[in-house]
Fold:
Amino acid sequence: MGPPGVADPYAQMGVISELTVLVHARTDDSRREAWKARLIQEIARMEKDFPEEKQALLLLKIVRDPKETNGKLTPAELEEGKRIGFGVIREKYR
Structure:
């Protein structure tokens, strides 16, 4: 389990999910770069703090896999996708 105060992997995946919605929105928003940076930080935090959450970590790996794209991306878009993912994550805790 993560450090004190950060003990909920479901909440962490919720934050990541919401950030993917923001960074992959089709709107031009001045906050997008800040959201990308935060998403990268939160993914790294999930990987570090919750290594036992195999399904969530696999989902994060899959969404950042270039093989999951349509292949019509520039080299810069591919590199960015490896860091922030190529699509939106919809994580739901039941």
User: Anything to note?
Assistant: Residues 9-84 form one domain. The chain has one domain: 9-84. Helices lie at 9-23, 32-49, 54-63, 75-84.
